[in-house]
Amino acid sequence: MFEAVTLTTGPAHGGIVAGSPPLGSLAEAGLIRPDPLHLGLDVTAGCHAADKDGLAQPDLLVTGLLARGHVGELTGIPDLTADAQLVAERLAQMLAAQGPASETA
To answer: What pTM was computed for the model?
Structure first.
């Protein structure tokens, strides 16, 4: 049995949305929400931000420390690389689905 459990998440992770004007604006619009552990943002298995209702936002991808509640503690280059690779693959899929960019005069 444990006498104590210490949560060592670092400085003010629970206030990450309130402390960032861009994230605060997205939260006010209902496009993002904190993850259940309040370590960052709520993220789906596909690295998309979850909105206020928990639905994936197809145009909002989250990686790095903001996704730590989903992917766990990112402790080094291998973790960051795998996470970034998944997001890069999702971005490539999104861009391919849009088709070729049209030129504007």
So the answer is: 0.69
